[in-house]
């Protein structure tokens, strides 16, 4: 009996998670600009699901700060102020050094292998002038370093923070890419040695880049895009 009852609940949980990820990705990408209304019925058609997982996904996104509820308008994409956007960079400057320090204490050999591989690829791409590929490598590096902290709480906060920064800021041009990846290599070396303070220091320098390197995105109009292909609720990546 218990097995029969778990199926619908598990399916609903996965569906809600998938829809939440899809809506969040569309918000971050700008498909839903700040201030856009998020109408449950239209979103359900867009992602090929019922309104129930959409409603639950909107609640989750509201708790994350991507969605707000307006009187007489319902759910809308949040509109961060310039001050709130600047706060994200300040939070990053505090949180990333903490994550690096914990990684120096808790990292596994598997984490180190991936981090070193990413540094090697980053340096190769930088030398070859393939800067368009470096941003995604940098994202993978940050994600792996966060996972190496051994703290689901810290890793989760860093993931959410990176999403919000990608949402409110358009990254500027890559500056001194080879130096950037050499600094990443030095950080990985400190983590590998278990040098907590050096890892914290290097991460602080890396996270303390000037806010001028980020371009604040402008807010958009009030539209909801037409339906697209249904979400693959078994394969959406968070």
Automatic annotation (TrEMBL):
<keyword id="KW-0805">Transcription regulation</keyword>
<protein>
    <submittedName>
        <fullName>GntR family transcriptional regulator</fullName>
    </submittedName>
</protein>
<dbReference type="InterPro" id="IPR036390">
    <property type="entry name" value="WH_DNA-bd_sf"/>
</dbReference>
<dbReference type="InterPro" id="IPR000524">
    <property type="entry name" value="Tscrpt_reg_HTH_GntR"/>
</dbReference>
<dbReference type="InterPro" id="IPR008920">
    <property type="entry name" value="TF_FadR/GntR_C"/>
</dbReference>
<dbReference type="Pfam" id="PF00392">
    <property type="entry name" value="GntR"/>
</dbReference>
<dbReference type="Pfam" id="PF07729">
    <property type="entry name" value="FCD"/>
</dbReference>
<keyword id="KW-0238">DNA-binding</keyword>
<dbReference type="InterPro" id="IPR036388">
    <property type="entry name" value="WH-like_DNA-bd_sf"/>
</dbReference>
<keyword id="KW-0804">Transcription</keyword>
<dbReference type="InterPro" id="IPR011711">
    <property type="entry name" value="GntR_C"/>
</dbReference>
<feature type="region of interest" description="Disordered">
    <location>
        <begin position="216"/>
        <end position="238"/>
    </location>
</feature>
<feature type="domain" description="HTH gntR-type">
    <location>
        <begin position="13"/>
        <end position="80"/>
    </location>
</feature>
<feature type="compositionally biased region" description="Basic and acidic residues">
    <location>
        <begin position="216"/>
        <end position="225"/>
    </location>
</feature>
